[in-house]
Amino acid sequence: MTQTSHSEQSIYFSPILPWQKGAWARLLERYDRLPHGLLFSGMQGIGKRAFVWRFVAWLLCDNRESRLNLPADQQVGCGQCQSCQWLASGTHQDLQVLPAASLPVEIDSEQEQGSTTKSGSQSKKGATKNSKAKAGSKAAKSETASTSIKVDDIRQLQPFMSQGSSGRRVCVIDNADSMTVAAANALLKTLEEPRDGIHVLLISDMPARLLATIKSRVQQVSVYPIQRLAQAGSQDESQAASDSAGSHLSQRDQQINSIHDYLMQAVKEQALLEYTDEDDLAQQISQALTLANGAPLAALEMLSSSWYSFRQIWLNAWIALRTGRRSSVAASDYWQKTLAIEEFVKLSEFMLMDLSRLNLGVPSLQTDIEFDEQTIQLPQEKIYAVLAVINDIKQACQQNVQDKMAYDHLLAELARL
Length: 417
Prior knowledge:
The chain is mainly α. The protein contains 17 helices and 5 strands. A 5-stranded parallel sheet has the order 2-3-4-1-5, sandwiched between helices.
């Protein structure tokens, strides 16, 4: 029973995210002619990793064949067979993952995982075991903190991808855009001369960094077509109007509605926001989606973060700093008691980016924040200078610099802004 309960909560066997059902159905339609190489790309927070891990479970599931008559969104790993149990425990012999820290074993609710429990910051807090991986590998703190994938890493995969197998074998390369040129060239041979039953799944937040030769040998899978649909809608407004004229919503409207419904359910279940009525909640969710560039899981992470509700307080405190009504020492003491340094840095960076927009004459995306005239009369170069300080503080925090020093430094810079 414990095993089953764990599997049901695992990222591998969670329900398909609502805005990904169309992409999932299209991928499963190619069941008998799946390509050996697939690229799942897009900005952070759209759920592409959640999609990939569910796909891995489906590929390796022993009961896959018996579930082909189910609706597409129910054709997922069963979570019960031996293969699924191996997968959930991180010991599946037919799965290899680069970097090893990307392998989800103990699943925290994370931005790219698509969990409906409170989102985290992509940090890998659980154990990260990988079959035949070196013991003691440390989990990466975040996607952006991952180191480059080197040629030796790819070469170590070659025996796995060249061995015969009675079933399918899957290799997942996360942050594929971090491959060095030599590593990418080493991977090319596998993509050019694939063995039967081998599937190489690439995940990338920045596919433009991938070598053109790599992209030419894999098929791209769009797991989040909202932006593409929006761009198409601007070019084909007459067609979009025609699609929406009837009783059925357009494809884009259906996608957007599914995202809003998902976020509203998650916010209510987790009690993330205070709101007066459904319209107020819908407006707050729409703003979060806008602030997250339309990425649903990034919006959910933002809403569930500690810093998000302190935006107006940050602005008021910063104005008090600038006008001399509060000292940087007092402000530092307050924020040390209020937010962890990582959260305060995120909040400060977020607010400074919005101040930069205002200074450039672009309206703020935060409709619930009251900006005054003095907040839009800042030299742009000063904002950039403080943002540079924030980047330095981020690196310093990774090197275990005392939190108090980081607070003091940042508040002193904000006071001089």
